[in-house]
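Feature request, filed as a ticket because there's no other form

It would be nice if the structure record came with a short human-readable summary line next to the tokens. Right now we just get the raw output. Example of a typical job, pasted below so the devs can see what we mean:
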Amino acid sequence: MIALGGCNGTPLFQLPDPAVRVIAFGDSTTDGPSDKQYTEFLQENPAIDPAAITNAGMGGETTTDGLPRLQQVLDSGLFPNAEMVIIWEGGNDLIDFIQQRDPFIAVPPESPLFLFGPQLDELLAQVQANLVQMIAASRNAGATPILVTYFFIPEEPIDCGLSPLPTLLAAQATTANGYVERLNTVIRDVGASETVAVVDVATLDATLRADIANYTNCNHLSANGNALAADMIGEAVITELNN
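Raw output as currently delivered:
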């Protein structure tokens, strides 16, 4: 993307970037605290033109906020030749829910003792609806959407903002992963119902959790982890760009 700056370095406006073919859209899984984002690893893939990838992530974003922002990105004319939109969102919807309703993360959502079942079902239904609309917006703009599932939280002590404690206990991490699995089920179901490819990063769980260095904190992959995710996402990108 080409930006012309004002006297204080703030962009006055951005010129269209016709080289971009892939818009990486999401929350802090796409643009977060890692030293290196997964999009940067995609740009290093010898089978992908580095200029073809743009990072349109926004940390802290929910799908409710992301839906209109994606529409704005697609309508902006900044990426007139975009052929693919990578959609990796939904995690912050869950984080907000946990912080507001279940900060101690004591009871797994699949347990009959879980107190917030109807509320969680309502939230996930909204996430599903938002993802479906993101897919429609991408297709209406002439771009192929793909979805990405979320990685699980490691059980080792690691910095985390999901509870009143600075780190999650192993049992809390297991409970939190019950939430993640519910979200991933929604993402996979949307992929199936909308005939959209799903890059199932969750299937890297054993590899990711084998080394705590794959995480920056409990919610974010490190550069090492992003490299692993980028290998999987890159396969889908290469397939689409070669079609």
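Something like this underneath would help us a lot:
The CA atoms of residues 27 and 173 lie 21 Å apart.
The longest strand covers residues 11-15.
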